[in-house]
Amino acid sequence: MKPRVLQLFTAGINCDRELRHAFELAGAEVSDVHIRALAQDPSPLKECDMFAIPGGFTYGDDLGAGRILALELEKFLGSALQEHREDGGSIFGVCNGFQVLVKAGLLPGLEGVKASLTWNQSHRFECRWTRLLPAPSLAGLVPGGNFLPAPSAHAEGRLVLGNPETDLSRLEEAGCIALRYANARGEPTAAYPDCPNGSTEGIAGLLSPCGRILGLMPHPERNLSAEHLPDRGAGEWGLGGEGVDFFRGLLAPYLAGTPA
């Protein structure tokens, strides 16, 4: 049986077809559900392995990126999502989906640590290719290479912490820093333009302490072949298709039939 991905949809989501294609290439069976339908009947969460929130500009980001959808998740699906995780399911959010997970309090999911995503330091929308370094625990998501090339496309991607001095060390100790931006030498960096938003310590993605919730700002679903890369796979930006490897890695526990 193929891994089952349930993909959320609502007004303003516009990266759902890309994400669906990436998951399908990685071996999943994908279905879509509108937030209103899921709020009325959360039972589809019991039947999926992974719940995914694509990128976009949900509700126009009118109260801040992802804020309205985050409130809907908290109010209508909080207990259902908790049951989903306890039953062995995972949650994934990319770009606006990551913003939703952070603002719903699902990430970083570490008691006492407050995080948010706010305007890029450039105060403008940034659209550029970036290199991502995975944490050692997630190295399997980038097989055959030391970084994941993925385009960033966001205006509110700068991750900030309530108390940087203590929160950063707690995130590191708990293994919650999933991905960092890197320069051309493969070194983690918070310097522009390699880090397009000025995120604290160059953090590009977070992982919950339980390991079942992952979110990141850049779009690995936009790197599915060498033709997608800026240099068409010549090597400076990888060989292409690293996004497929990334999603296969996410689905690996369910491909094996035994959730970790």
Fold topology:
Layout (H helix, E strand, L loop, with lengths): L3 E6 L6 H10 L3 E6 H6 L9 E4 L13 H20 L3 E5 L1 H8 L11 E4 L7 E9 L13 E7 L3 E4 L2 H10 L3 E6 L20 E5 L5 E4 L25 H14 L5
Parallel strand pairs: 1-2, 1-3, 3-4, 4-11
Antiparallel strand pairs: 5-8, 6-7, 6-9, 9-10, 10-11
Write up what this structure looks like.
By secondary structure, the chain is an alpha/beta fold. The chain has one domain (4-255): 3-Layer(aba) Sandwich (Rossmann fold), CATH 3.40.50. It is 26% helix and 23% strand. The chain contains six helices and eleven strands. The strands form two sheets. A nine-stranded mixed sheet has the order 2-1-3-4-11-10-9-6-7, with helices on both faces. Strands 5-8 form a two-stranded antiparallel ribbon. Strand 1, helix 1 (16-25) and strand 2 form a beta-alpha-beta unit. Helix 3 (67-86) packs across helix 4 (96-103). The protein is globular. 48% of the residues are buried. The mean pLDDT is 95.
